[in-house]
Every structure is written in structure tokens, then in C-alpha cells.
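hey all, quick one before standup. I had two proteins in the batch that finished overnight and I want to keep them in one place so we stop losing track of which output belongs to which input. First protein below, input sequence then C-alpha cells straight from the run.
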Amino acid sequence: MTADVAPLLMLAGVSRSYGELEALKPVDLGVAMGQCVALLGVNGSGKSTLLRIAAGRDTPTTGQVRYGGAPLHEDDLVARTEIAVAGDASSTYPDLTVREHLMLVAVAHGGGQLAPSLVDGALEECRLADHGDALPGSLSSGQRQALQLAAVLVRPRRLLILDEPEQRLDPGARQWLADLLVAQKAAGAALLLATHHLELAEAVADEVIVLDDGQVIARGAPREALGSPR
């Protein structure tokens, strides 16, 4: 973050407890448009908890989430139209073809007459152009992950929240993913990303936050944070 760039998303003192379990200790972060913050850590380190709070899908125990300068709430309709989330590759409609699934997402988010061209572009961008008539269950695991990303591309988005989008992708596909996310940044989107892959974080992120047992143990530019955890 630079002092002259206002954050689109801001978390201040955000923590989350479930009974006596403190899943996420207080953390601050900000993401501006055209920037990416990457969260790294082992499973159970608090990454997904932080992402759910940042997306307005969970309420922090302490602290505040602000989006576009205003407090973010679960029923915030403006944020719902601008925050695109990609997570579990199983969250598709099994009885709809790939194209039908993407059309439904595009129309539901106001694509209107542009929906068919948005879908065609996303299928091409995500290397699914030959699978538009396939059912999600017939796709490979990597292709199902690509479908989750295509569903992001057919809807309006100022903020992308991505939970381990590199899952099930081979090395070549991970390079494609890095290029895609860099292009989204260049187009002005803000990205908050959880990942296990250091190479993806280095390729895409402006800031890396390393979590362990719900606590920030390192943060900074990718090489700084990944090279000298504290």
C-alpha cells in the first residue's frame, strides 16, 4: 500500500473467535484497486476465515471491515454486485452445462444482452471454449477450477477474493492463472488471494501476509516477507 492510494477494502483490528477457539487474531490490511494482497500459511492458519470476513460472509468478533469507505455488512447489496469470490470448485450447478452455468451467473449479475459475449470471452480466457456443452461433472479437476474463475470473469467486479485458485492446476495452468490475475490487476481490480504457492504470490502480489495459527508472522513485499519471516 502507498500513502496516496486509498484502499478499496480495509480491515482494521479484525479477529474471529468460535467459542474459546481464536481462529484469527487481530489483523489489519488494505487492498487498493490495481493491487493484490496474498495470504500464505498452512491449512488452519486462518486464511479462509480472513477471506470470509473480507467478503462479508462472516462477521468479525472484533474490528471492522470497510469497503469503498463504508462498513461492510452481509446484506450490503452494493458490495454484492462488486465483490466476486472464487473458492470451492464443487459449487457449480451439476445439471447445467458449462455455458448454461456461466450464462446464469452473467444474467444474474446484470449482464443482459452482453451475457453471451461475456460467456464466450470467459470460456476462451479460461481455456474452456471446447467444453461449453459439457456438464461440470465431466470436467477434469483443473477444468472445474477454471470454471470457477470463468464465473468470476462474467460478472462485474472491483474486488476479487480468491481462495487457493491454483488448486488442482498443473504448472502450466498455474502460469496461465498468474498471467490472468496480473491482467485483472492491470484492468484496475483489487485482489485478495489465499495461496499455498510461493511462485504465484511472487508473480502477482504487491504485499504478502504470512499467517500461522491465526496470527500474522510476516508481511511485506513478496521477497521480503517470504525470505525473512519473523
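OK second protein, same deal, sequence then C-alpha cells:
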Amino acid sequence: MKLFKVSAGHYWSDGGALLGVLPYAIWKDKVPTDESLRQKMELNLLFIVQEGRRILIDTGLGNRLSDKQRDIYRPSDFMLPLSLGRLGYRDKDITDVIITHLHFDHAGGIVTDFAGREVLTFPNATYWIQKEEWEIAKNPDGLNKAAYAFEQQLALLEATGKIRLIEGEVEIAPGVSCVKCGGHTVGSQYVQIQSEDAFYIYAGDIIATQFHSSPAITSAYDVCRKDTFKAKQDIYSRLKAHNGTLYLNHDIKRWDIHISELRV
């Protein structure tokens, strides 16, 4: 098994919303922001290669944002196809895509606009999504309505893609498991990787940056802080048990942090 960090680009997110309960006075001198107090967010995805399988975790923003979204989030170009190409892989080579949750910065790259024609970015892949996450994205309630854009991001996948809706903790390939945790969204999941000699967790937006490694710091985007807190406790318990490493998907400086470096 081989693991690679692949970049899908970056965007900028509101600092207050991102750091949630952490007061501005604490982070204002520690986190660089632009003139609108937005923080740069990397879109670092995990790519797993093993015999017969090429597994991508999340898809980034894609290239189909509206002018309003571009103004708000200042996104870079969609870098995912280029990043995979540098490793020697094409879109058709991807066998599996795990989606940690269906917010636009994680699911937007499911569909790509090629010269005005919208197609699945990874046409041969099976997409692994928690059933509860799919259902809330398709039929959002008042709390979640603004967080999902099913017709724009997911309708083509529903019509033409291979979707596997899973529930709870499921091993989708040898040593690669999806673990439902909720918290950030009702159907959020993180990914656990057990190789022959190492253990990793890609936590998605449960632990998006180094600031979020503190169990009590959650973003304002989380639908349930209590569940996010529990998910972090579970993640750290597993990392400690296996002397493992945590991957951070949005941090601008760090990609991997060994459990020995975390004060938890």
C-alpha cells in the first residue's frame, strides 16, 4: 500500500466561522488572514494505491463554482487532475472515491465541466458515502438547506455513477475503513488506514487544521459540537492504540502529525 498527498488547490474561508468557539482575540495574531478576515484553506486529499485499487478521499471544489462563490471563497484553479497526473494516474484509473461529507469543498469535484460539458470526474469509480449523509444532502432540513446543492453537485452522480451508501464502520478495501462519526455533518465519516507497518486517520473536517486538534475547538459549521468532540476522542484513542498519524486536509502548513505531537 502506498499513500500520497494530492492537492486539489485552495480557497479562503471566513476565519470566525472556521474557528467557531475560539475567540478572535486568541487566534488573530496566530493565523494569517486577508482583508476580509478569511483564512486560506488547502485542499489536501489522500490518495491510496494498493493492488487493484486506486482510492481517492474527497474531490475538492471542482471547476463549476458560480461567480458569487468565486467572489466569496477566492478559489484557485481545480488542481486535482494535474496532481494525480504528476503521479502518473488519469481520471479513468481511479477505482474508488470516498467522500467524508457532501459539503461543496469536498464533493464539488465529483463533476467537472469539460468545455461546457458536465461529466463525472472519475467515471469508473465507486463512490462510498454514508447513507445518512446522502439522504440529508438530497432532502435537507432547515438547518442544512444552505450546506448542500444536490442538483448542482450530485444529480449526475445519482443518474450515472456507481454509489455505495454505507452505514457505520465499513472496510471498503483491505486495510481501508470508513468510520461514521457525525458532528461536522450528520453523516460525516473519517477514513482509517492500516498498512503493514503503520496506521493513519484522515479526519476530514472533524480535525481540519492544527487549531482544530484541540478536542473542544469546533467550527461554526459543525451541526453538533458534542458529536464532533466524541469523534475526536475516538480518533485520538485509535491513534494512541496504534501509534498512528493524523492527516489534516485544510491546514496550510502541516499535512501529517504523529499522535506523539498532539496534546490530547
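Flagging for whoever picks this up: The mean pLDDT is 96. Residues 2-261 form a domain with the Metallo-beta-lactamase; Chain A fold (CATH 3.60.15.10).
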